[in-house]
Amino acid sequence: MSVRKPLGGLFLALALAACGGSGTTSAAPIVVTPTPTPTPSPTPTPTATANTATLTLDAGPAELNQGLNPYTAFNEPYVTVTICAPGSATNCQTIDHIILDTGSVGLRIIQPVLNASLLAALPTESDTSNNAVGECYQYVNSYAFGSVRTADFSIAGEKVANMPFQAIGDSGTFASVPSSCSSGGGTSIATVQDFGANGIIGVGTTTTDCGSFCTVNGGSSGAIYYDCPSSGCSSIIGRAANATAPFQQLPNPVAAFPTDNNGTIITLPTVPQHGLPSLTGSVTFGIGTQGDNSLAATNVLPLTTSSSRLGAGLLTATYNGKQLTQSFLDSGSNDYFFIDTSLNPCTDADLIAFYCPAAPTPLSPLLTATNGATASGAFTLYSPLDVSGTSTVAPGLGVNPTLVKPPLPFANSFDFGIPFFFGRTVYTAIEGRPAGNVNGPYVAF
Fold it and tell me: Pick from 413, 386, 414, 428: which is nearest to 271 by CA?
């Protein structure tokens, strides 16, 4: 879905019953010494998992500002993850500038980012023909192809062993992109500069990246799995949709956690109109699973499930009198993406797809959930011309998806990107998982 550009702890109280001894008498008194009641060991307090990671928006990896077309990232929320060779505590790599994306599912890392010694120790998944498995993943305006490998994964204190991830732009067998992947349109993602990041962690509303669509040979959705013999990848194969081991499809890493596995909570400060050089917030894993992640939101909006004909994770945005039934909240989109021909377009060639209002303009989309609940999606639209040249973060910028190259298929969508998250705490609950006494999928704020 994303646009990709350049319980509380449970405490038990134990009631202790005191026992008394009794004596009997005969010719001489017999003194009975009662056996002391042993003092029970205290019930141990459950150890909370470290479930909060730092979320940073900044200029991006240093590699972006190198080469023929240098640039800095803009409105990209990054986290740091660690992956290790399966079973190893030493052959590990901590990787920064991984995009946190509520609009996709699965961990994907640009292959050249991986250390050679680690890469060599990361097994490639194999299929029933004992061939390596590859994957194509389609974003709204781009696609990524690479191998499916397994690694031990961790973020904050959360860990998953032998978790599949995609190594984007992998070499050898995976060097040639299948035509059924590239024919989906958009640009190819193969490098850090293509992606604006070292990788992406998709923490959306489904437990795996393809679900039932990919469980049969020839099946696909936004994800396509391939049989990859040494001659290359071509046949589309089925992969089981398990969110716990044994894995086949890429899981939502959060859904694969042993605990705190029902969703995420993103918290970010407000951002002034002229923007900021960087911004720091947090992502907390789990909803209603520990003392620090209770559901405390005014608006709880259930979303479409993976069985919906429209797709998963969607709600309706009513804007300018039109009901846009495939709308979504997406931390992986840099700005608001929506169609409004009444707004002034920018004329600068570098800003051609942006709206450039002459003055800050209040807009009032209304969000409607699958159960009919509503909430305001109102925001103020600003011009990118008013953003400071030193800023890598700015609020309220809007993009006309028909002017993006290639144009985005958003005629029935309103994409509430990362600026919607500024100044809010936003919950994203995973499908089929109870989260704070409400079943996912939902968004809340």
Answer: 386
d(CA 405, CA 383): 20
**Calpha distance 163→123 (Å, rounded):** 11
Sign of the torsion formed by the C-alpha atoms of 288, 290, 291 and 293: negative
> pLDDT truncated to tens, each residue of the chain (445 aa)?
576 544 222 212 212 222 333 333 333 333 334 444 455 544 444 568 899 999 999 999 999 998 888 999 999 999 999 999 999 999 999 999 999 999 999 999 999 999 999 999 999 999 999 999 999 999 888 999 999 999 999 999 999 999 999 999 999 999 999 999 998 778 999 999 999 999 999 999 999 999 999 999 999 889 999 999 999 999 999 999 999 999 999 999 999 999 999 999 999 999 999 999 999 999 999 999 999 999 999 999 999 999 999 999 999 999 999 999 999 999 999 999 999 999 999 999 999 999 999 999 999 999 999 999 999 999 999 999 999 999 999 999 999 999 998 889 899 999 999 999 999 999 999 999 999 999 999 999 9
The C-alpha angle with vertex 41 and arms to 35 and 44, in degrees rounded to 5, equals: 170
Hey, is 74 helix, strand or coil?
coil
Residue-wise burial string across 6-40, b where 16 or more C-beta atoms lie within 10 A, e elsewhere: eeeeeeeeeeeeeeeeeeeeeeeeeeeeeeeeeee
| Exposure string over 269-308, b if 16+ CB within 10 A, otherwise e | eebeeebbeebebbbbbbbbbbeebbbebebbbbbbbbee
**Closest by Cα among 206, 2, 205, 229 to 134:** 229
Neighbours of 191 (CB within 10 A): 15
Token digits of residue 329: 């909240």
Residues 283 and 158 sit within 8 Å (Cβ to Cβ): no
How far, in Å, CA of 89 to CA of 118, rounded? 12
- Give which of 377, 399, 422 is closest to 141, Cα–Cα: 399
- Token output for 352: 């051609």
Q: Which residue in 287, 73, 292 sits closest to 198, CA to CA?
A: 73
